[in-house]
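Worked Example 4.2. Consider the chain below.
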Amino acid sequence: MVSSICVFAGSNPGLHAEYAVKARELGQQIAAHGCRLVYGGSRNGLMGQVADGVLASGSEAVGVMPVDLFKEEIRHSGLTSLIEVTGMHERKAVMSGMADAFIALPGGVGTFEELLEILCWAQIGIHRKPIGLLNVRGYFDPLAEMITHSVEEGFAAPSTLGLLRIASEPAELLEWMKSYKASDDTLGQTSFNPLG
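Applying the procedure from the previous section yields the following structure tokens:
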């Protein structure tokens, strides 16, 4: 059962207002589905928007932030709780341990690194938690193409394609996650459609 969702997201807002709108909407949907948010703890960018959406909708938002990044101007002041960690590796381990599912919003290199590590962990069997991408403005289309290409070129197993769900609407991702059941069939899926 999914009750705690880890969200990876950019600490910048991006160039289009739709990114922030969808991030806040994702937060609202997380709360509407009775889930808690676990994320990086920032008030900035899409990270702050998703937390604002969760908190304004009456649910919990837990931030996990390395001490080096713990500055008043960066951390979200309205969080339900903030967990201080020593570095980025510990941050990812704590967030992963607290989460029943993962969603990535658009972001930069840090967001890609977090997402790809979680995808790798699923591929090698460290976890069997659902992973979703909120594909605002087609942001993740190139990543979907790259993953498909890695399978076509023999660098990743075909089962990798079934480890992600990509959707353009937050409600679709949350509905999928709430009904998700890990099985051997999930790991064996070979169809991959960027829009689910």
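The chain has one domain: 4-188. The beta strands are 4-8, 36-39, 61-66, 81-85, 101-104, 131-134, 164-167. Compare this with Example 4.1 before moving on.
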